[in-house]
Amino acid sequence: MKIKKVIIGSDHAGFELKEKLKDYLLKKGIKIKDEGTYSSQSCDYPDFAFRVAKAVSEGKYKRGILICKTGIGNSIVANRFRGVRAALCYNLKTARLSRQHNDSNILVLGADFITLDLAKRILLIWLNTPFLAGRHRRRLNKIKQIEREIFYVG
Hints:
By secondary structure, the protein is of the alpha/beta class. The chain has helices at about 15-25, 45-55, 70-80, 90-100, 115-130, 135-150; strands at about 5-10, 30-35, 65-70, 85-90, 105-110. The chain has a single domain (about 5-150), classed as Ribose 5-phosphate Isomerase B, Chain: A.
């Protein structure tokens, strides 16, 4: 496994899955920066998605993981950041293709829609699948051009 460290965050609905995936990753030798939440007490997912996506956008972490009830809210927040390609993955194929075709750098999981076993399998595939480049590089370059236009400060 090439990835040595990740940043992770969840809201209360994703807390239990986050804690189990942290243990799993630590056993695999991956260092983790946990941006919260730290309990199952009700909280707001944008707070945690913001911190994880900001760290990935700024290059402090190459990869991040976000978990909430559906994964939709975290995806919306994370993809607001320049350079972030957050992918909501709910099976092995979406995890693999999000890396191969989109070079996704944040994995988003919906805790209510996957089991712990499936989450572990998705995570391993997502961490270990390389970006294929080729024709996909051209498409990523178009996304980067869109970002330059959106985030242009003149």
